[in-house]
Structure formats: C-alpha cells, structure tokens
Design a protein that fits this description.
- The protein is α/β, with parallel strands linked by helices.
- It is built from 18 helices and 10 strands.
- It has a domain of 94 residues.
- An 8-stranded mixed beta sheet has the order 2-1-3-5-6-7-9-10. It has a two-stranded antiparallel sheet with strand order 4-8.
- Helix 17 crosses helix 18.
- It starts with a helix and ends with a helix.
Amino acid sequence: MDKDELGKYFCMAPFTHIAVDSQQNFRPCCMFYPTIYDKRYDSVRKVFDSVENETLRQKMLNGEKIKGCEKCYRDEKLNKNSYRNDFNNRYFKEEYIKNPKIKELELALGNKCNLKCVTCNSYYSSAWEKEDKLLSRIMRRRIVENDRVNENLEDFLNYDFSDLRQIKILGGEPFLYKEYFDFFEKIQVDKINVFLVTNNTIFPNNDWLMKFKQFNNVKINISIDGVHELGEFVRYGLNFKRFTKNFEKWIKFSNENNNVDIIPHLVIHNLNILNVVSTYEWLSKYFDKKTFLSFDILDDPQYLNIGFLPDNVKSFVLQKISNFNYFNTIKEYLNMTKFDVNSMKEFLKYANFLSTRNDLPEESLIIYNLIKQSIKNVEFE
C-alpha cells in the first residue's frame, strides 16, 4: 500500500489521532471543522472506535475529498506544511491502517483561562464569559458557562495509551490545571513527545519543569499575537513586561535542557496584521535562525479574517508588511479570498465593543479607519 496511490486527500490522522477540546468534545484533529461526531461520547475509547471514525477512515482509503479537511487543503495550496502532510510523514504504515491505535492525543481539560484574547470566546476561555453575554446583544457569540475540569476524568480517559507517542496539551491555559499530572501517571513519559500551548502569563512551578525533563521531547508553543501595546490589546489581560520575563525564562530552560524547544506562534488577523513585522523583529533577538516562527492565518470568526478585507486595505497591508519573512504566503492568502462587506460591518461592531476595554492601538486603528471608509464608499456607490 502506497500513500501516493491513496491520493492527495488521504490522511493518517483518523487512524492514529483524536482531539479533545476545552468542552470535552471530539474532532478527528484540531484542523478538522466541524466535527463528524453527531452524538456526545463519554470516553476517548468510544469515540476512537466509533462508527463515525470507521466511516471517515474508509473515505480516506477511497481517496475521497473530505468535508472538514479544508484547512489542510488550503495550507497545501499556500505551500505551507499541512497537518495532513505531518501525519502521513510520521505514521504512514499499513499496520496502523489495519489496526488503528492512538499514537497522538490532543487534550484540553477545560476552558479555564486568565486572558480574553480578541480571537477567542467563552468556549475556550472562561475569562470571556461575562463579556460574551454583553457582546451577544449585538452579534452572534458562542457562550459557555463552565470552567471546571471533567468530573469523570478517569472514565473519560479510560484507554490503553501504551502506543501513545505524542500528546498536545491545550487549554484554556494548561498551567492552571494540576489535573494534567493525573494523566501523566497513565502514560510512559520517557517515550512520549509533548507539545504544550501556553499564553506565557504563567511560568510553571518546579513540578512541571521536572516532569518536562522526563519526557522524550518537549515543545513549548508560546502564543504571541503582537508585541508591546498591541500585544496587550489583542491578548487582553497580558502584561508584556511579564511576558518578556517569562519568555526569557523559557529560553534559558530550553538552553539548559536538550529535549526542550521553544516555538513562538503567531495567529494573524485584522487587528494585528500591521504588527507582524515588529513581532518578528522582537522575536528574532532570541533565535539564531530564520524559521523559528510558527504562524497561522485566522479563518474564523470571519470578521477578523484578513481575506475579507477591502481590496484597497489589502494593498495597503501588503505595502506595510513587505519586509515580513512570510510576505508571499500572506499575499497568496489575500488573493484567495474576496472582500465581504457584511463581515467588515461585523468587524466594526466588534472593534467598537473592544474599544470599551481600551482604545484601539495605532496599528489596529489604522485598519479600522480604512475599513470604515471603504464601507462608506461602497454604500455611497
């Protein structure tokens, strides 16, 4: 069996992976949207062995294009390495196809978080709950009233994890959950790679640091969606001076431990697009290579998606970020999507709401004013 024969849509994720989000809902992987699981499952084992998974695996083997996998298809068009490619490179073996086992687990124990990032909501951050209720009066929002860990965690994670080789730890903010240590007791940490996503507001205690030293490999993915004033605005609740101190502690910890790598991750959207060059320059002080930055372009919510910007704003953006290391990818993405006036009207509503917290930083305000003028021009025509 050859993966090229199976076609350009085949992916090993359904055979080797499952993703559990902050509300204990499942997806075949974090890039898959929406989920294929029509009912609520109460354990990892049941969902991995479900009829829905069996159906998805068969579609993969048939070479079908899968609804829900669009993010990977788009990344491949942009010449970005996709999750699909990663899974196939790591796990393509006939034995895994014939006998699916969880080799990788993405796990969020809850939505407890201390930040209200502009790209987020109460589904993933408990800090958003009160403001989501206010914001829902003027635009659609997904409201969740829950920041507790699953009370039946032992049953929920009832699975033979002896084949597990990688775990991705998410939140909320993972360092607010001591319950991860209960899960660590179920796995062979010395054989497992860890990928942990943190907002870097908390530098973990010694228990976490000692555990990281025991894992085979650890990648600390640090979210950074802007620097200085803009960084504090788009990740509301962040103190950038403290962020810097914690970041430097991580760099030191990585330098002292060969199994630990630091990966800064940037999510690009309408409110931070003019700050990406400054963010890259700030980060470059800590790394001696050009490809240290991981990044995504936000798809949803659409009102923050740079692809729906007016054409004149897109041209302005490209002029301003021409020195960005990933300029060509941004340019290709902007060319793939057309201006959507309704999405931009929603953006103005959202930005107005955010300005009740703090004034928009200069770079965000420039985009706001350009969008506002563009909409006026469209309506005038």
